[in-house]
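[Meeting: bench + compute handoff]

Bench side (C.D.) handed over the final construct sequence. Compute side (W.E.) agreed to return the predicted structure before the next meeting so the bench team could plan truncations. Sequence as handed over:
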Amino acid sequence: MLAPILRRLRWRRMSLWLLAMAIVGCLGFLIFTNQVPVLDEDPLSLKTKLKEAAKAFSWGSDDDHQPPSLQPPPQSPQPRQPTSLQAFQNRSQRVRDACSAKSGSAAQGQPPFPYHSLYVRSMSFCALPKTGTTFWKWILYYVDKNMTGPLLSHDYGDIHKLTRYMEKADRLPPSDGFKNIVFVREPYARLFSAYVDKLFTPRWENWQRLAQPAMAYARPGASFINRRCSHNVTFSEFVRFFIHGEMDRDARVKRNEHFVPISHQCNFCGIGYDFIGRQERFAEDTLGILRQLNRSDILTFSALDEHYEVYFMDALIKYTFEHELKKISATFRCMSAEQILRRMWKAVQIRGTLSAEEFFPLARSDIQGMTLEGFLLMAHLAYNRSASDKDRQHNTAQALFEAYSTVPLHDRQLLRQIFDDDFKLFGYEPNHPLVFPPEDEFDLPYYRYFDIYDSFLYTSIV
């Protein structure tokens, strides 16, 4: 079955390319004959400006003079190096200084949020969601079980269940000999990533647990199907609900660890963290910590580059096929199989794993008989083609820019207030131009990451 689909896919790509060339030719003819006004600026300016903004601007100042960017930096002649001990010490000192300056709880407007730390040998790791915690649970499990061979050569299954025995709630680590580790993340990017993973990506359980309350608050007049499914909560609606839960002390909202500000968790002003990693420099910081713990043998930059992205792409595809695409799945009450797969494909593109030019590979008629193995093959072929697209590392920045363009200025200002302690403790920029662009003008490219039927064809033509 897969061979005919691939043949149709090749013909469809060729047809779309010929159509694009024909349209470009017609536009060129019309411009040449003065029937269409010629723009004063480069037609690609919107796309180019956004790419340059994503490339040039860092998400905050860092102590080792290598400011973290939203996406990993492009390959350069200088090989990457693990983060130095001095850089970690500078970050820890910044937190101590910020805590001393505020002389109180790190939480603003809300009590500190319950957190869990994992204890393994002489290490404690505060498990902050959306900062690379899953990967670090692999590391802790590998170390605790005396596993051998490369870290990423093992199948860890449900690592959250496997490491549950390590968890201790709201506990101060021993003062002697323990190394305290935590990873943090740029607040605007973390909130956006949580929305993509928990609400945009098809997951019935998350819609019931997280999206339904947001829908009830932000869209009280929603239809019955939208109230029941809550599968189409927008980013702007989610932000309004998040603000309500964080700023209204009387709100009957169950706060969630994936969204609560980082400074409200992990007791940063009460625990002296030896290693504060940044999600934006995840590879360098992870290898830097392992070097200080004398475990550089279990992971390398090349292993991360080769396996990290593909592992998470495969995990998302497998989960979607094995849970959300089952006929008995409640997800089918809300979305068709095509819509589920298209959303999943977009989520992988937003992560920067697949190029935005890799449009959804299946015709509607091919979806019913598609197997997990067949879809994985298509995804891997798309991933291999995406390797030549250097712009895909900016997909997340572009998608974030699109998402925050839908949030009113007043709500973005409230977010800035909510995240104030995060900015002070960890050195992130409160007025990032992808969230607060000059004159508050969002010049969006034509491609839309959150329109599941959109294609990069439109961007390519313009």
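W.E. noted at the follow-up: The CA atoms of residues 180 and 273 lie 5 Å apart. C.D. will use this when planning the next construct.
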